[in-house]
Design goal:
8% of the residues lie in helices and 32% in strands. By secondary structure, the protein is mostly beta strands. The chain is globular.
């Protein structure tokens, strides 16, 4: 187990390594973010542990049992079932490691049902992913990036996903959903033509489930482009625990929704970090070699 103080020092040492904020001035690290709740970084080999020994860094092609959280909160992502473990691609993006989920049954779990309640209870929050959905330019499929229980019925929680299913007239769609239980949707975003499949995207999602301005309950940016959001759901946010802990690369209710997906980095904050979002975006673009709009 990595101690909380060690998690903080690891994050800051990487920041000091020289990822600039996009020009002259100080370097930036995600550990500088306020309200940092989760930081998973596949480029840091010391945090990607293999299925043979939980304390041993993985090598290229090995199954991954634990992905250590660098936020200092010890919310490590884990999968103890070997058949459900993703693989490490040590040179997956910009000569850095990424985790590949097979689209059949691979997923990780982080925290408990109460850990990430700030994503659905009305707290202003920020979710940032460096991820690649699908292995073709037209997947015609669906995958969930993160999920704590927001689907249908009496569920409570948050979900963000990629959807390209032609049967539902969805094309490269970024979805964000927050549910409050029996009543239904607090946030429902279905934005077509926002995510490019089969390449890595920097996806930023700001959520504020109890904002009185409905369209401001969810605002997103992909690869540094224009901010977008059109939420019209108006139900009240729930303070109840989410239906599930945080699932990475899994839609809770069905394996049909699994799709090949790769993650380079996941950052979650219980604060929108308006002043630092540009710094974070530039840090990720420089680090992973992604061109911003």
């Amino acid at each position: 187990m990595i101690a909380r103080s060690v998690g903080r020092s690891v994050g800051r040492s990487i920041g000091a390594g020289g990822f600039a904020t996009g020009g002259a001035g100080p370097t930036f690290s995600p550990s500088d973010l306020t309200g940092l709740e989760l930081w998973l970084d596949a480029s840091d080999s010391s945090t990607v542990l293999n299925s043979i020994s939980p304390d041993t860094p993985a090598t290229d092609g090995q199954a991954i049992r634990r992905w250590l959280d660098k936020s200092g909160n010890d919310r490590h992502a884990e999968q103890t079932t070997g058949a459900n473990q993703p693989l490490l691609d040590a040179d997956g993006l910009n000569s850095k490691g990424v985790l590949t989920f097979d689209g059949i049954n691979d997923f990780f779990t982080s925290g408990t049902t109460s850990t990430y309640n700030f994503l659905h209870n009305g707290t202003e929050s920020l979710v940032v992913l460096v991820a690649k959905a699908g292995t073709t330019d037209n997947p015609d499929n669906f995958c969930t990036y993160l999920d704590t229980g927001a689907v249908t019925g009496s569920t409570v929680g948050f979900r963000c996903a990629y959807d390209d299913r032609s049967a539902f007239s969805r094309n490269n769609q970024l979805q964000i959903q927050i549910r409050n239980g029996v009543s239904g949707d607090v946030v429902l975003e279905l934005n077509n033509d926002k995510v490019t499949p089969n390449v890595f995207n920097i996806i930023e999602m700001k959520v504020d489930a109890d904002n009185a301005t409905l369209a401001s309950r969810s605002q997103s940016i992909v690869n540094g482009g224009a901010e977008f959001g059109s939420n019209a759901a108006s139900l009240a946010a729930s303070t109840a625990d989410a239906g599930f802990p945080l699932h990475i690369a899994r839609w809770t209710y069905t394996t049909v929704a699994y799709m090949p997906i790769e993650f380079a980095e996941i950052i979650i904050c219980s604060d929108p970090n308006a002043a630092n979002r540009e710094n974070l975006r530039n840090y990720l673009a420089s680090k992973w070699g992604i061109t911003l709009a």
